[in-house]
From TrEMBL:
Organism superkingdom: Bacteria
Keyword Nucleus included in the entry's annotation: no
Gene Ontology terms for molecular function: glycosyltransferase activity
Stated name of the protein: Glycosyltransferase
SUPFAM superfamilies in UniProt: Nucleotide-diphospho-sugar transferases
TM ranges: 214-234
Domain Glycosyltransferase 2-like: 3-138
UniProt-annotated location(s): Cell membrane
Entry keyword set: Cell membrane, Glycosyltransferase, Membrane, Transferase, Transmembrane, Transmembrane helix
Entry GO CC: plasma membrane
InterPro entries per UniProt: Glyco_trans_2-like (IPR001173), Nucleotide-diphossugar_trans (IPR029044), Trfase_2_rSAM/seldom_assoc (IPR026461)
């Protein structure tokens, strides 16, 4: 039932580990779609080399860069009734798809995501992970209180592995191709018309590469600033200047 969609751009370091993890999922997905935005490293070659070992793996070479655009291209090509948007540096538990299917079996739930635990080679970012967890609740409570209380809105981010029904994703217009950041928040505020947004009480592991490069204080200040400024109406184009791509 589940199509996994991975947007990539120069992810040669993170992608092999993620593909090894995906090989162990049970139940297995309908397909794994890598939507590449024009990588100049070995990302495409890595995907092609894995297609024999992982027959469900498909590669889409997108006409332009942009995570929202790439995920939309993957969704358009997907065959599954459920879409799961996975970052190339995020690892799922082996029963993740069963968790997703159980969650969406409840018709009052429109979409969901997991609790993201941020880890690196030498440490786990407990405080940053905890803040990201509670931010899923306090951000919509502060900035969209009606949707939070009456509709069950939650603010989830890409490293929490967003999932939803394909039919409802298409009905609400999918991701906005022109958004360079906060595309997940924008999508969820439109998906909430179909039901609650659920943060599932299970953990996925995400890379700490931004915190490792920026440092704890700077990274968390940037995360907090972007969330606050988005909540009060700053344009995503301006916010993107604070959030450089790191591989």
């Amino acid at each position: 039932m589940v199509s996994i969609i991975i947007p990539t751009l120069n992810e040669e370091q993170a992608l092999p580990r993620t593909l090894r993890m995906l090989r162990g999922l049970w139940p297995a997905p309908v397909e794994i779609i890598v939507a590449d935005g024009g990588s100049t490293d070995q990302t495409v070659a890595i995907v092609q080399s894995w297609q024999t070992e992982l027959p469900l793996l498909r590669l889409i070479e997108c006409a332009q860069q942009g995570r929202a655009y790439q995920m939309n291209q993957g969704a358009q090509a997907a065959q599954g009734s459920i879409l799961c948007f996975l970052h190339a540096d995020t690892l799922l538990p082996d029963d993740a798809l069963a968790v997703i299917e159980r969650t969406l079996h409840n018709s009052s739930v429109a979409a969901g995501g997991f609790i993201s635990l941020m880890r690196g080679d030498t440490q786990t970012r407990w405080l940053t992970s905890f803040h990201n967890y509670i931010k899923s609740y306090y951000a919509p409570l502060l900035f969209r209180p009606y949707l939070f209380v009456a509709k069950g809105a939650r603010l989830l981010f890409g490293d929490q592995v967003i999932f939803c029904r394909r039919e409802q994703f298409m009905r609400c217009g999918g991701y906005r191709d022109d958004l360079p950041i906060m595309e997940e928040a924008d999508l969820l505020l439109r998906l909430v018309q179909f039901g609650r947004i659920r943060q599932v009480n299970r953990v996925v592991e995400s890379s700490d590469r931004r915190v490792a490069k920026w440092g704890f204080w700077r990274a968390n200040a940037i995360f907090l600033t972007i969330g606050f400024l988005w909540g009060v109406g700053f344009s995503p184009e301006r916010l993107k200047r604070l959030y450089e791509d790191i591989r």
